[in-house]
């Protein structure tokens, strides 16, 4: 599945949250129940934080999340309810956008969560924030460009559950698996992987990349394929564009 498809899925989730107000949901934050669907709009950041914590307090089996970053500087970095949930055996799987590494407080919070047992991956295909409790209850953020007055929607829906869970799974399975050692160092890629991306961005062929690294062409091709899968890139060109756009590779060094 290529990057455009994955990004489209993430955007569909945000669009779902954007459109909820037009479906007749009360604007006072009250729940509405209709045809097996339970939902409410979240308007304030404090309500959003409280609802995030409540999800984790009530989680029995799992919390899955897409983290786009974008929180205000004063917002709490790690949920206060996460450590207790991890301690009682709740599985946390979180896909982070690389922009999280641009803020020291978010990076430190992420590292702390990983040390406590969170499973974390990185993807450039995260265009919204999503939290899933036990695969049955959801918080979906509106898109950054949304004109909606609400920040997110909380919902439970057997009809939408499969779509939302499948959407998360697709992003998770194609996200870049980053070892705890890499998270600890704040480095997403190995030095040779960064060098490969820089050389590709400079227009070098596999043979030239192999000579520069002192490895076989087959090794270079295998690493490129792994990087493409990790970033959901459909081609070598798209891989270079993705890495540059999200500052994974120093652009000046790629010239």
TrEMBL record:
Q: Name the PROSITE patterns for this protein.
A: HTH_LUXR_2
Entry's Gene Ontology molecular function annotations: DNA binding
Q: Name one GO biological process term.
A: regulation of DNA-templated transcription
Fetch the InterPro entries from UniProt. Sig_transdc_resp-reg_C-effctor (IPR016032), TrmB-like (IPR051797), Tscrpt_reg_LuxR_C (IPR000792), WH-like_DNA-bd_sf (IPR036388)
- Pfam families this protein is in? HTH_23
HTH luxR-type domain: from which residue to which, for each copy?
182-247
Q: Which CDD domains match?
A: LuxR_C_like
Which SMART domains does the entry link to? Answer: HTH_LUXR
What protein does this entry describe?
A: LuxR family transcriptional regulator
The major lineage groups are: Bacteria, Bacillati, Actinomycetota, Actinomycetes, Micrococcales
């Amino acid at each position: 599945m290529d990057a455009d498809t994955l990004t489209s899925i993430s955007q569909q989730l945000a669009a779902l949250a954007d459109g909820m107000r037009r479906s007749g949901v009360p604007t006072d934050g009250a729940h509405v129940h209709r045809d097996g669907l339970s939902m409410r709009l979240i308007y304030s950041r404090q309500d959003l934080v409280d609802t995030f914590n409540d999800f984790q307090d009530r989680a029995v089996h799992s919390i899955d999340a897409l983290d786009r970053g974008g929180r205000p500087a004063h917002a709490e970095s790690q949920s206060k309810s996460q450590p207790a949930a991890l301690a009682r055996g709740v599985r946390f799987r979180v896909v982070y956008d690389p922009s999280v590494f641009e803020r020291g407080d978010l990076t430190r919070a992420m590292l702390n969560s990983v040390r406590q047992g969170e499973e974390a991956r990185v993807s450039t295909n995260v265009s919204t924030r999503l939290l899933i409790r036990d695969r049955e209850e959801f918080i979906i953020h509106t898109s950054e460009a949304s004109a909606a007055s609400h920040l997110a929607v909380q919902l439970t829906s057997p009809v939408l559950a499969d779509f939302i869970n499948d959407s998360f799974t697709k992003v998770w399975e194609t996200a870049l698996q980053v070892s705890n050692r890499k998270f600890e160092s704040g480095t997403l890629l190995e030095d040779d992987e960064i060098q490969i991306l820089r050389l590709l961005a400079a227009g070098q062929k596999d043979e030239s990349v192999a000579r520069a690294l002192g490895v076989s062409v087959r090794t270079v091709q295998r690493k490129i394929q792994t990087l493409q899968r990790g970033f959901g890139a459909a081609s070598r060109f798209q891989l270079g564009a993705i890495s540059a756009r999200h500052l994974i590779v120093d652009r000046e060094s790629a010239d």
